[in-house]
Amino acid sequence: MESPTKITSSQKAASDLFTESMRASSVHGLTVLSIEVLFACCGGGATADHFLPDPAKDPILGIFFAIYPDVCISFQRPKHHGGFIRSDIRFDATEFPNVSHFDSEVDLLDALANLIRTHDPDIIVGYDINRTSLAYCLKRANTLQCSSLGEAVSRLRVDGTPIVELADVRGRILLNVWDIVRSDHPMRHYRLSAVVSSILRRRFADVSQKWIETVLSQDDASLNSMILRHFHRKADISVQILVALDIFIKTSQMARVYGIQFTEVLNRGSQFRVEAMMLRLTAAHNFIAPSVSVEQRNAMTSPETIPLNMEPRSGLYYDPVVVLDFQSLYPSVCIAYNYCFSTCIGRLNEIRQCLDNKNDEYLLGALPFDAPNVDLVADLHKHDQIHISPVGGVFVKKETRKSLIAMMLEELLETRVMVKQSMKRYDDPVLNRLLNARQLALKLIANVTYGYTSANWSGRMPCAEVADAIVSKGREALEKAIQMIVDDAKSVLPKYRGAEVIYGDTDSLFILMPGLTRAEAFVLGRQIADDVTAMNPYPMKLKFEKVMMPCCLISKKRYVGMSYENETDMEGVFDAKGIETVRRDSCEFVAHTMETVLRLLFDDNVDGAVQYLRYKMQNVEKIRLADFIISGDYRVNYAESAVLPMKKIASELEAISPLHKPVYGERLEFIVAEPPVASKNCTVYSCVFRLQKFLENPQLTVNYNYYIGRKLMPALARVFQLIPLKVNWHLGNQKQCFGCGTGADLWCSSCWSDKTALKRVIKAISDRNSAFVSSKLACMNCVKLRPSMRADIPCSNLQCVVWQHRYRVQSSNVHELLKFHKYGSTLTAIKLPNIVR
User: Fold this and answer.
1) CB atoms within 10 A of CB 545
2) Strands across the sheet with 344-347, in order?
3) Checking DSSP bridges between strand 173-176 and strand 123-126, what pairing results, if any?
4) Mean of the per-residue pLDDT values for the chain?
5) Which pLDDT score is estimated for 822?
6) pLDDT at residue 746 tops 70
7) Catalysed reaction(s) (predicted)?
8) Which of 312, 331, 469, 797 could form a disulfide with 389 if both were Cys (CB 3.0 to 4.6 A apart)?
9) Among positive and negative, which fits the CA dihedral 750, 752, 754, 760?
10) What tens digit of pLDDT does each residue of 339-351 get?
11) What is the Cα–Cα distance from 343 to 401, expressed in whole angstroms?
């Protein structure tokens, strides 16, 4: 499974031949067109609520594009970029020589059609292609009875029907960028500004549709040029996101490995991939794959075995914990024991029952087969050519018939070794990206092959006998490894120095090494891995993965610790699974706080962890707003009685218009706000506000009690109970005297008439005003607007440090201090503009 230490001449020649064939088979000439549309909502009168256009009435004002003629080879910048815009929108023509004016909306759509005919792109992308990109252009063209765009977009027309929806387009690949990011790069939310920040490490202004239309209504060429720059960047960024995720090369190589289409790699599941490869192999060996009906699948015997998942010995361990992992456990089990559809005779008890009752047929998987020949089975048993799985599945050995699954997996894994060897020998970045994509495709298909045999709910040819055999043998291998360590601990002279298994899950073991150093744990962990490997047939191998020191085991599939993969590692890597620091249904406030507390506990600094929590609670108002955003996937079908934030937000959006209804899988963001003072028995559900709604209402404040009491403390309690430590918390009054920091009002009785305190307020106002002006200039520089324009940029990119600074200044209450001071009425406060509006 791993590359050999020495490469033979034949292996080197094969690797060279493979590398040359990879160069020859690299993807050339893959042309990508990115389209973004400038439109006017509500006939040019967009509101804060209406931000998506209606193709029946909202006109297209401009279309912007970026073209990459050979995106897999030349992907740094587009070869062609430009746009088409209505002639009544003025802009700086010297800055945008590739932007053309057109008198009517139909002319814009005809220009886009001519562009598509000229460059004939294979792939058309848009960040939200279904709502604000190509799909909107097609629907708008249908409204205006402009048929040229549909004819140009689709390379094939069926029965002369008009092309109105993206589903009608034939012959081109259409990619929805945010949906691909959702599958390939999971995030808490998928606003374009957040995706650009996370993937491209850049800032991108997140401006509202209402503001865009407000700027255009001023008919200023410089301001209009700013809008054009924004949409030019947006068109280019959509492709750059896909390039950064290596979507084009990775998907094309997967399509070649699996023998399926480009779009099927993105849209179809793992069963489809396995079947595509297996059907080619079965045809080559004169087998026919059965197709099981839904009724037959429902009547099939259910699988009997589940993977081993031990209840962990929960605790916070400062001694080293070694993590060992079976390398490709289920594929190696199939190869080692020759498990396959083609080698399975059936279950032992069913075969006996069939022979005793002299039945002519019996069930194997979901289909009836002829009863096995008694003499043939007896002869196989006599010559030791039968293997019986731990749950009674009967299989012939490879000397009698080689497993098709084993043949496929061996070829996949050996090819992957060869690909990884080639990656080490060549420095060509394009070739290395190609090779990496192919080895990833081989790895993924090998790891999901078992799932194809056990898909008893939706699979085409599930077989419980094969699936049970694979799982039971993998479980048996893990149990034998555990028993070996337990038996050694009971011996007079323990070889493993008292090692204890504290957790086991499917194919991995967590082994505590009490009293050992980290260096000793590395040596002993590798020794255990070698001994377990020697107990199992080739290619089953227990691989040393890492040492976690310290390690906190919370519950099944929930653990965290500092990981070391090599003896030379000076610092550990914070490694968490299943807890709030990595879960997306939490918020960043909980994730950051919990990670810091855990790091302090790992340093055995319990007092420091408590002091940090106290500091966090006392300064909770200074934490950036983005850390309190919670998001969740929208699932479309909710029970009528369901009380969920996503359902509430979706209902609010749908009430604006049906076009605003979220799509399946879209992550909706919300903040839990402080309930009104006058309200009694207010529920959390009633305090949930959509993010944009929260930003637009300056009276709303974050409900810090909810985030601390309902989100942070329960998560920390699961860790603190392992120490054990009990933490009681109380969030004090956030209103304090500005002069002395005591009391519960803006001014205490002594500072209310103190002129020195008033001077501090005036200085604070001046400092905040200067900070706001500096932030405003930074925002203008972000969109490349000349400082002389003095335009306010109402960006809502919450990931941006500048936005956070502006919001903190904006939400400060220094002006309220002047209003309530004894001498405040003699001064005039400088009002700061509302950056949200």
Assistant:
1) 17
2) 344-347, 393-396, 386-388
3) parallel
4) 86
5) 66
6) no
7) DNA(n) + a 2'-deoxyribonucleoside 5'-triphosphate = DNA(n+1) + diphosphate
8) 469
9) positive
10) 999 999 988 888 8
11) 7
Residue 1's pLDDT is 35
- Which one is predicted more confidently, 803 or 566? 566
pLDDT value at position 680? Answer: 67
* Burial of 664 (C-beta count, 10 Å sphere; 0-12/13-18/19+): exposed
**Which residue, among 157, 150, 152, 154, has the nearest Cα to 169 in the 3D structure?**
154
In tens, the pLDDT along 417-461 reads 888 888 888 777 777 888 888 888 888 888 888 888 888 777 888
Q: Tell me, what's the pLDDT at 428?
A: 78
Residue with tokens 């934490």: 623
Can you say whether residue 328 is alpha, beta or left, with left for phi > 0 and alpha for psi between -120 and 50 degrees?
Answer: left
* CATH code, residues 579-733: 1.10.132.60
One-character DSSP codes across 667-678:
EEEEEEBPPPTT
Q: What is the pLDDT averaged over residues 749-763? A: 73
Cα separation, 638 vs 233, whole angstroms: 38
Would you kindly state where each structural domain of the chain is located, as residue ranges?
32-245, 299-306+321-467, 579-733, 751-826
Sorted by sequence, the CB contacts under 8 Å of residue 214 that are 6+ apart come out as none
Binned at pLDDT 50, 70 and 90, residue 744 comes out as low
524 neighbors 513 (Cβ within 8 angstroms): yes
- Tens digit of pLDDT for each residue in 451-493? 888 887 778 888 999 999 999 999 999 999 999 999 999 988 8
Looking from the CA of 287 toward its CB, the CA atoms found within 13 Å total 18
Contacts of 223 (CB under 8 A, 6+ apart): 215, 785, 789, 791
For the domain made up of 299-306+321-467, give the CATH fold. Helix Hairpins (1.10.287)
More confident residue, 516 or 732: 516
What pLDDT is stored for residue 405 in this prediction?
A: 93
pLDDT at 2: 38
3-state secondary structure 539-570: CCCEEEEEEEEEEEEEECCEEEEEEECCCCCC
* 33, 133, 234, 754 from 82: Cα distances, Å: 11, 15, 12, 62
At 359, the pLDDT band (50, 70, 90 cuts) reads confident
C-beta of residue 164 within 8 angstroms of C-beta of residue 138: yes
d(CA 400, CA 626): 63
Q: Show the DSSP H helices in 619-745 as ranges.
A: 645-656, 691-696, 704-706, 713-720
Which candidate, 652, 670, 694, places its Cα nearest to that of 585?
670
Maximum alpha-carbon separation in the chain:
110
More confident call, 112 vs 794? 112
Angle at which helix 270-284 crosses helix 247-258, to 10 degrees, equals 40
Instruction: Please report, as a single letter, which amino acid is at residue 534.
Output: A
User: What does 23-67 look like in DSSP terms, one character per residue?
Assistant: HHTS-----EEEEEEEE-GGGG---SS--S--TTTPPEEEEEEEE
Determine if the peptide bond prior to 658 is cis (ω within 30°). no
Asked if 692 and 796 touch (Cβ cutoff 8 Å), the reply is yes
Spatial contact of 96 and 225, defined as CB atoms under 8 Å apart:
yes
Token digits of residue 579: 């807890």
835 pLDDT band, cuts 50/70/90, is: very low
- The answer to whether residue 702 scores a pLDDT higher than 70 is yes
Task: Output the CA–CA distances (angstroms, integers) from residue 529 to 499, 522, 596, in the order listed.
Answer: 13, 11, 33
Spatial distance between the Cα atoms of 613 and 608, rounded to a whole number of angstroms: 9
- Rounded to whole angstroms, the Cα distance separating 237 from 615 reads 40
Calculate the CA dihedral of residues 786, 792, 796, 797 and round it to 10 degrees: 20
Q: Among 515, 562, 560, 567, which residue's Cα sits nearest to residue 544?
A: 567
- The mean pLDDT value for 563-590 works out to 93
Q: How many CB atoms lie within 10 A of CB 822?
A: 14
For residue 24, pLDDT over 50 is answered with no
